[in-house]
Task: inverse folding
């Protein structure tokens, strides 16, 4: 899986240094709000991880019940990769949707923030939109697509798979470059920075331990290769 929830959460972490004398009050306030909101989202993501796992497990169980082994005997080729990426998209959709209320709240905060540097404002709004788009991403019908591919003798992938993959790949979730934000970070936010970094590390550990395993379990549920 090239993108995972941990990657998304990790992009909220950036190096913090004392604000320079030239930092405007608006820039400092927006940066503080950004960091505070990022802490809240990270805390929620770590706290709700068991719920994310339960929801992903339910998806795998449903697929196993509806189309067990539907992809058995499928080749390992470029067409197969499209379906395995669709499966990854399903995992992201389920995972992000678990925290959709927190992502909505995060989005509403970031969309109101502005900096004197328009690039920072643009990057913050882009991040907010990307997270919300991932949280509202539809869960594809993997069983239907796998059955259709099998019925075609594992030839061409069903027509809806590649557009879905392109849509997921196009969702833009990138951090605000730290070099742009560091001049506006206040000294008082150092402790908050440490807490954010700790939560990000914890979430990355959770994602590393479970993300790939969840993907493999889902693929096995319908008999697809990795």
Result:
């Amino acid at each position: 899986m090239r993108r995972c929830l941990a990657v998304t959460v990790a992009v909220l972490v950036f190096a913090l240094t004392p604000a320079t004398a030239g930092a405007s009050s608006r820039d400092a306030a927006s940066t503080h709000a950004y960091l505070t909101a990022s802490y809240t989202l990270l805390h929620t993501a770590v706290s709700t991880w068991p719920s994310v796992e339960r929801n992903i497990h339910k998806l795998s169980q449903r697929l196993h019940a509806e189309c067990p082994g539907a992809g058995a005997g499928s080749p390992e080729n470029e067409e197969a990769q499209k379906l395995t990426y669709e499966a990854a998209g399903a995992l992201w959709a389920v995972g992000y949707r678990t925290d959709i209320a927190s992502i909505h709240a995060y989005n509403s905060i970031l969309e109101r923030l502005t900096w004197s540097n328009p690039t920072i404002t643009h990057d913050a709004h882009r991040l907010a939109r990307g997270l919300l788009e991932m949280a509202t991403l539809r869960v594809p019908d993997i069983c239907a697509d796998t059955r259709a591919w099998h019925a075609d003798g594992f030839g061409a992938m069903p027509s809806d798979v590649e557009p879905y993959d392109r849509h997921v790949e196009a969702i833009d979730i990138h951090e605000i470059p730290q070099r742009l934000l560091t001049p506006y970070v206040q000294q008082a936010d150092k402790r908050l920075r440490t807490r954010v970094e700790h939560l990000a590390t914890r979430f990355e550990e959770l994602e590393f331990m479970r993300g790939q395993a969840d993907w493999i379990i889902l693929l096995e549920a319908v008999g697809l290769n990795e």
Notes: The chain has one domain: 5-69+89-221. DSSP finds ten helices and no strands in the chain.
